[in-house]
UniProtKB/TrEMBL annotation:
Signal peptide: none annotated. Keywords: ATP-binding, Nucleotide-binding. Residues 328-342 have a biased composition (Basic and acidic residues). It comes from Cohnella endophytica. SUPFAM superfamilies: P-loop containing nucleoside triphosphate hydrolases. Residues 146-299 form the AAA+ ATPase domain. The lineage of its organism: Bacteria, Bacillati, Bacillota, Bacilli, Bacillales. SMART domains: AAA (SM00382). Residues 311-380 are annotated as: Disordered. GO terms for molecular function: ATP binding. This is Stage III sporulation protein AA. InterPro entries: AAA+_ATPase, P-loop_NTPase, Spore_III_AA, Spore_III_AA_AAA+_ATPase.
């Protein structure tokens, strides 16, 4: 709250308790109504902190208030955050990411930076310890005594980063949540935190609990960070958020052939979206990921579905009764509620999914011992 100018902070401090407890986004747009997102809802905010679904009568941030907010989030130095401005967001202490909207400045056809910034989307970061316990048992490679190469998939704001953060904590702490893994030790985890959201590091020190055996490269590009991790920090599991560029895939190939397990996230709704993205499609077709986790959210409830690589390929080769794009989070359809079905949902059009031939390839084993160590003995 201390990031906001006094006049804005006074409005936000009066929000109802139900909104404050589940607050996810604060959208501040110059000379336009103040908006918040909480749970599966959004509302405009009046000057007294009360909520309304109508934009009329809502509090309207002024140019001066937006300028003051920009000064605070950049610590009064726009030039110090020039790289973040080029990418359209600034991450502040606590892992909260502030998306920016304004006029782009181009250099040889590429975005150089933003100017005349008049829109802010403050995304609230929260750790949910225990979230990973529901998912991790289905991701284990019991033979190799570690986690399988895993891709977590969902549209934005469905819980990918929250889940991957807690999975990293579990692996680093040796909390496997599976009876067959009760004698396993923990694993060394390397986290490449390009957007400073997973660890929320403050001067290199994570502020979220990531377990005792995690190392973090903060604000580092994913592809370069993965290679730095493999070369110098000897991780057994590498964690990265939001892959999708060709260089990300190249680094992942290098990591898996070095015996490192990969835990990653990507934006997509289902397997057909995965195969519609060239980089993800190649990784999937090459059999890189042993399993996929699909997240679906309705209100505060997040449901997950774990799919093996083989099941994912069969699913991708069937016809899918869906329309392109993610459903709104307040959409009551079966897809949004997390109940995937082969039967048509009223109002959607059947779309054929891509057929992909999977290349069978044996994944390299990791360095951890294959034999189960005696109880109480660290097997690292």
């Amino acid at each position: 709250m201390e990031l906001f100018p006094t006049s804005l902070r006074l409005v936000l401090e009066q929000l109802p308790a139900v909104a404050r407890e589940s607050l996810e986004e604060i959208r501040i747009r110059e000379n336009r109504p103040l908006e918040i997102s909480y749970g599966s809802r959004y509302s405009f905010v009046r000057e007294d902190g009360t909520l309304t679904e109508q934009d009329q009568g809502a509090f309207v941030p002024s140019k001066e208030q937006c300028r003051a907010l920009l000064e605070r989030v950049t610590n009064h130095s726009i030039y110090a955050v020039e790289e973040e401005l080029r990418r359209g967001y600034i991450t502040v202490s606590g892992g909260h990411r502030i998306g920016l909207a304004g006029r782009t400045v181009l250099d040889k056809g590429a975005v150089s930076h933003l100017r005349d910034i008049a829109g802010f989307n403050v995304r609230i970061a929260r750790a949910k310890v225990g979230f990973g316990a529901q998912v991790l048992p289905g991701l284990l490679d019991l033979k190799e005594r570690t986690i399988r190469h895993t891709l977590i998939v969902s549209p934005p704001q469905q819980g990918k980063t929250t889940l991957i953060r807690d999975l990293a904590r579990c692996v680093s702490s040796g909390e496997w949540h599976h009876p067959a893994a009760r004698d396993w030790g923990s694993r060394k985890v390397g986290i490449v935190d390009e957007r400073s959201e997973i660890a929320a590091s403050d001067r290199g020190v994570p502020t979220f609990d990531l377990g005792p055996r995690s190392d973090v490269l903060d604000a580092c590009p994913k592809a370069e960070g993965i290679m730095m991790m493999v070369r110098s920090l000897s991780p057994e599991v590498v964690v990265v958020d939001e892959i999708g560029r060709p260089e990300d895939a190249d680094a992942i190939y290098e990591a898996i052939h070095a015996g490192v397990r990969v835990l990653a996230t990507a934006h997509a709704s289902d397997m057909s979206d995965v195969f519609a993205r060239p980089v993800l499609s190649k990784l999937a077709a090459d059999g890189v990921f042993g399993c996929y986790v699909f997240l679906s959210r309705s209100g505060k409830k997040v449901e997950h579905r774990i799919v093996t690589a083989e099941e994912a390929m069969r699913e991708s080769s069937r016809r899918s009764n869906r329309s392109f794009g993610a459903s709104p989070r307040d959409d009551p359809s079966e897809k949004q509620l997390g109940r995937w079905t082969d039967h048509p949902v009223p109002g959607t059009s059947p779309v054929a999914q891509t057929h992909v031939n999977v290349k069978a390839r044996t994944m390299p084993t990791i360095r951890s011992p294959a034999m189960i160590a005696p109880r109480g003995v660290d097997d690292d």
